[in-house]
Design goal:
- By secondary structure, this protein is α+β, with helices and mostly antiparallel strands.
- The protein has four domains: about 15-160, Endopeptidase. Chain P, domain 1 (Glutathione S-transferase Yfyf (Class Pi), Chain A, domain 2); about 190-265, no CATH class; about 270-360 and about 555-620, Neurolysin, domain 3 (Orthogonal Bundle), CATH 1.10.1370; about 375-530, Neurolysin, domain 3 (Orthogonal Bundle).
- It is built from 26 helices and nine strands.
- The protein has helices spanning about 35-55, 65-90, 95-115, 120-130, 140-155, 160-190, 205-220, 230-240, 245-255, 270-285, 290-295, 305-340, 345-360, 365-370, 375-390, 470-490, 510-515, 525, 540-550, 555-575, 585-595, 610-615, 625-645, 650-665, 675-680, 690-695, and strands spanning about 195, 225, 390-395, 405-410, 415-425, 435-440, 440-445, 445-450, 450-460.
- Helix 3 runs antiparallel to helix 6 (about 160-190), helix 6 packs antiparallel against helix 10 (about 270-285) and helix 12 (about 305-340) packs across helix 13 (about 345-360).
- The chain is globular, with a radius of gyration of 26 Å.
- The termini are far apart.
- About 45% of the residues are buried.
Length: about 700
């Protein structure tokens, strides 16, 4: 039996030309305005509610076509429209758009909470799960149904009515707090400006950083140089500026943003964090769990909070001797070579860079000259085409900013996916780097909807007519986000709920992204993606060898830092009483006392801008980066083994391994458990050995 088409009207003809309601092709970013948001969301919510009301009615026989497909049809369009608004709010923040976003976000939260608690829908999913048709559905459809039953339970569908109301209120309050947290970080970042008129105070900063700072000051009609808390602006000061007082100034500003020590009290996230933790703890109790960490892990690979803590503590124990050695070396260097009797927090990055320059006879700025943006992206595309047998071509589409690029991916002449590339930091754009989906892959009858992704970074922008220059860390970040994008775009699953990254366990979703970073260290890859900014010469082998020798410089410190963040996150959501006397800072201090070898100053308020866990979906899940790094390092080991056993096959064996990675990891998306996909690719359970070897933390 075929599903009835969704003919529920979208409302009055006054919204007929609303670009947020046009799902015929790519988003019309050139036409979307803040005033379109509310009419579009109201219309889509009304239609979705009408469809759900029809689906709540008793059915003689619940089937995929009559139940899930019409529900997917209406909620997918609502999700796509709101996804556009959410994306614009992150990359092009304006007062008008922020107001429209904040006006409509509670409506969306209320709607999705009501759907998650809808007992009639829940009963129909259970009927599908327990019905005779379940066994004949594809594995992808079975997994979608299983995931839905799980998510209804996590959404409070089993709760009595009075507790459902409280659960819904928690979701709305939490959503508003999460948005406010993110806005406070963005506002504090955008507001800060450090103006330096005396060029001698900026000794050590490279030319491109100085040019960007001068251009920023000129744009404000000010003399001299303007520095902000956007990463490409403040980090070179910490890393390269010889002026210690300047380093301290920018460090303090960044370490205290969105806190009680920041510029404006209304941007302080301290109470927001407390309130969010209380809400999460209450949500867990309502659902019958002991803590929010248990709730978070239901949909992840890890089974229990203690399993995660044991994993992290084991990693910390392995990394600690290397971290202690790293710290002793940089302290001795700072004292003997830089005259710093006491190395403060704002000296560490500077001293570390100077030590690396001395030890390996090169600087990041020297390397940066070989990574102009056009060459880097061309090299990334060349690698992708080699590994996966696809073609990446420039494409055209409306965009939200003049710097945004658009591309298409084809295989055997057929469109596979498309993506937007938004590389540069700017005011009004959220910091960090991320991939998000504009739409997912889905097949309906003979019609295939191809996936579209957003790839967003915050690198230094071009100055004048010169291309942007990337650090090697920037290159790794770009490869990381592109790995997420490939996971989304190279899927071969036709069911929306498990195509691409949808339905993939959160602690496995970083596997394809971290996997891609490994290629940034391969000589054969770098040859295709380097050209000196002035001479056009490729990266010299001698400089590459120095980079490789320095690859694991301070990897012990870096590993312990990630373990520290992960344990802090897990303990906050596992065994911290949000209503008790111990503060969030106390939890962080305890973790640092036990595991850190490098403790920040008392004024550091890192947690107040820890957007991953308070505004980014990683709550009780930040450990995922290290967990997935075990998977990604081990997966990359297959390429290393293929390379060592070429047996005259040249690159063919590596391409063969790439095709297998695509078919067993990327193509299957969330249609089966991530561990099954890993074992299908690697032929065994994952091992931590490759991660320790790649990090230089082996005997």
């Amino acid at each position: 039996m075929n599903a009835a088409p969704d003919t529920t009207p979208l409302g009055s003809t006054g919204i007929a030309n609303n670009p947020l309601l046009d799902f015929s092709d790519l988003p019309r970013f050139d036409a979307i305005k803040s005033e379109h948001v509310t009419p579009a969301i109201d219309a889509l919510l009304a239609r979705s509610r009408a469809v759900i009301a029809q689906l709540e009615a008793p059915m003689q026989h619940v089937s995929w076509n009559d139940f899930i497909e019409p529900l997917e049809n209406t909620t997918e369009q609502l999700g796509r429209a709101w996804g556009l608004v959410r994306h614009l709010n992150a990359v092009l923040d304006t007062p008008e758009l922020r107001a429209a976003y904040n006006e409509n976000q509670p409506k969306l939260t209320e709607f999705w909470t009501a759907v998650a608690q809808n007992i009639a829908l829940f009963d129909k999913y259970k009927a599908l799960r327990n019905g005779p048709d379940f066994t004949i559905y594809s594995a992808a459809r079975q997994r979608i149904i299983d995931n839905a039953v799980r998510d209804f339970r996590l959404g409070g569908a089993d709760l009595p009515e009075d507790k459902k109301a409280r659960f819904a209120a928690i979701q709305e309050q939490h959503s508003a707090l999460s948005t406010k947290f993110s806005e406070n970080v963005l506002d504090a970042t955008n507001d800060y400006a450090l103006l330096i008129e005396d060029e001698t105070e900026l000794a050590g900063l490279p030319t491109d950083v100085m040019q960007a700072a001068h251009a920023a000051a000129e744009q404000d009609g000010k003399p001299g140089y303007k520095f902000t808390l956007h990463f490409p602006s403040y980090f070179p000061i910490l890393q390269l500026a010889g002026n210690r007082a300047l380093r301290e100034t920018i460090y303090r500003a960044n370490a205290t943003k969105a806190s009680e020590l920041g510029v404006k009290p209304e941007w302080d996230n301290t109470q927001i964090i407390i309130d969010m933790l209380k809400l999460r703890a209450e949500e867990a109790q309502l659902l019958g769990y002991q803590n929010f960490a248990e709730v978070s892990l239901v949909a992840k690979m890890a089974q229990t909070p203690q399993q995660v803590i044991d994993f992290l503590q084991d990693l910390a124990q392995r990394a600690r001797p290397f971290a202690e050695k790293d710290l002793a070396e940089v302290r001795a260097f700072a004292k003997q070579e830089l005259g710093l009797e006491t190395m403060e927090a704002w000296d560490i990055t500077y001293a570390s860079e100077k030590l690396r320059e001395q030890r390996y006879a090169f600087s990041e700025q020297e390397v940066k000259q070989y990574f102009p943006e056009p060459k880097v992206t061309a090299g990334l595309f060349h690698l992708t085409q080699t590994l996966y047998g696809v073609q990446i071509k420039p494409d055209t589409a409306p965009v939200w900013h003049k710097d945004v690029q658009f591309f298409r991916i084809e295989k055997d002449g057929k469109l596979v996916g498309q993506f937007y590339l938004d590389l540069y930091a700017r005011s009004g754009k959220r910091g960090g780097a991320w991939m998000d989906d504009a739409r997912g892959r889905r097949r309906q009858g003979d019609t295939l909807q191809t996936p579209v992704a957003y790839l967003t970074c915050n690198f230094s922008s071009p100055v004048g007519n010169n291309p942007a220059l990337f650090t090697h860390d920037d290159v790794s970040t770009l490869f990381h986000e592109f790995g997420h994008g490939l996971h989304h775009m190279l899927t071969q699953v036709d069911e929306l709920g498990v195509s691409g990254i949808s339905g993939v366990e959160w602690d496995a979703v970083e596997l394809p992204s971290q996997f891609m970073e490994n290629f940034c260290w391969e000589w054969e890859v770098l040859q295709h993606m380097t050209a000196h900014a002035n001479t056009g010469a490729a990266l010299p082998r001698a400089l590459y060898d120095k980079m490789l020798a320095a690859k694991n410089f301070q990897s012990g410190l870096q590993t312990l830092r990630q373990v520290e963040f992960s344990l802090f996150d897990m303990h906050l959501h596992f065994d911290h009483d949000a209503t008790g006397s111990r503060s969030v800072q106390d939890v962080l201090n305890d973790v640092r006392e036990k595991f850190a070898v490098l403790v920040p100053p008392a004024f550091n308020r890192f947690q107040n801008s820890f957007s991953h866990i308070f505004a980014g979906g990683y709550s009780a899940g930040y450990y995922s980066y290290k967990w997935a790094e075990v998977l990604s390092a081990d997966a990359y080991g297959a390429f290393e083994e293929a390379r060592a056993d070429k047996s005259g096959h040249g690159d063919a064996l590596e391409a063969e391994t790439g095709r297998k990675f695509q078919s067993e990891i990327l193509a299957v998306g969330g249609s089966r458990p991530a561990l099954e996909s890993f074992k299908a690719f690697r032929g065994r359970e994952p091992s931590i050995d490759a991660l320790l070897r790649h990090s230089g933390m082996t005997s």
